[in-house]
């Protein structure tokens, strides 16, 4: 794996921030150091970063709030939290926000490097042929084969059913914009295509009803939200 990653580091402790930047730079990473969450968010919006390292307790904007803001615009960039806290509740909150890992201070530089490399191996791991099966609640879904494995038997989806379900699943718990989805699948967001999409949504709800935790919600004036309740 290449170490030439562009990392954004948000750490308000000046000495620790400089130490981390110096160490990571010596390992071949490009590091942008910021002192608070607000500054980090502004930097993230104006540059491209491959990895985020955020201290949790920072002035102006804390690490959790920063991560929430980042996740609004980028759901995939890896986020590693640094914190002086080791409380289980704090770790759970961090993972709920979308953290990839959590490092409690004090830590060794080698442990930090190992965590970064482990996260990037997961992110960059190639998808093996035949392994692209997603679990939607208790229902197995193979988007490449357009198959839902249901209790009553396998269901082969139509192309549009599959495209729509795939977009919903990829954006799980997020609002899927109605107009953008129509343009992506139907090529035009006109009224008639909109009615057609509503029919497909109804079909998907019917297919997925065997798992009562699955819900495709209408979000008035915006689109849809795909949820799998715990």
Which percent range describes the beta-strand content? 15-25%
What is the CATH homology-level superfamily of the largest domain?
A: Response regulator
Largest sheet: 5 strands, parallel
Number of E-state strands: 12
Give unreliable regions as ranges: 126-131
Number of domains: 2
- State the separation between the terminal residues, measured CA to CA: 35 Å
Features:
8 helices; Arc Repressor Mutant, subunit A; 43% helix; four-stranded antiparallel β-sheet; alpha/beta; five-stranded parallel β-sheet; 12 strands; 230 residues
Please summarize what this structure is.
A hairpin with a 2-residue loop joins strand 6 and strand 7 (139-142).
Give an overview in words.
- This protein is of the alpha/beta class and 230 residues long.
- The chain folds into 2 domains: 6-124, 3-Layer(aba) Sandwich (Rossmann fold), CATH 3.40.50; 134-228, Arc Repressor Mutant, subunit A (Orthogonal Bundle).
- Helices cover 43% and strands 23% of the residues.
- It has 8 helices and 12 strands.
- The strands form 3 sheets. It has a 5-stranded parallel β-sheet with strand order 2-1-3-4-5, with helices on both faces.
- Strand 7 and strand 8 form a beta hairpin.
- Helix 2 (37-46) runs parallel beside helix 3.
- The longest helix is centred in the last third of the chain and has 18 residues, at 191-208.
- Mean pLDDT is 87; it is low at 126-131.
């Amino acid at each position: 794996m290449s170490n030439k990653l562009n990392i954004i580091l948000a750490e308000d402790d000046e000495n620790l921030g400089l130490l981390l930047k110096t160490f990571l730079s010596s390992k071949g990473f490009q590091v942008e150091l910021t002192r608070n969450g607000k500054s980090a968010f502004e930097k993230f919006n104006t540059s491209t970063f491959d990895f985020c390292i955020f201290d949790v307790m920072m002035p102006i904007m804390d690490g959790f709030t920063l991560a929430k803001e980042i996740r609004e615009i980028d759901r995939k960039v890896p986020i590693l939290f640094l914190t002086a806290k080791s409380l289980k509740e704090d770790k759970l909150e961090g993972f709920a926000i979308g953290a990839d890992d959590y490092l409690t201070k004090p830590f060794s530089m080698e442990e930090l490097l190992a965590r970064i490399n482990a996260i990037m191996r997961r992110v960059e791991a190639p998808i093996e042929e035949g392994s692209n099966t997603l679990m939607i609640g208790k229902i197995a879904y193979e988007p490449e084969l357009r198959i839902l494995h249901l209790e009553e038997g396998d269901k082969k989806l139509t192309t549009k059913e599959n495209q729509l379900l795939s977009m919903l699943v990829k954006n799980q718990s997020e609002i899927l914009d109605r107009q953008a989805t129509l343009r992506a699948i139907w090529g035009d967001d006109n009224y008639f295509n909109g009615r057609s999409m509503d029919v497909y949504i109804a079909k998907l709800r019917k297919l997925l009803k065997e798992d009562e935790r699955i819900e495709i919600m209408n979000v008035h004036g915006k689109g849809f939200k795909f949820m799998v309740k715990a």
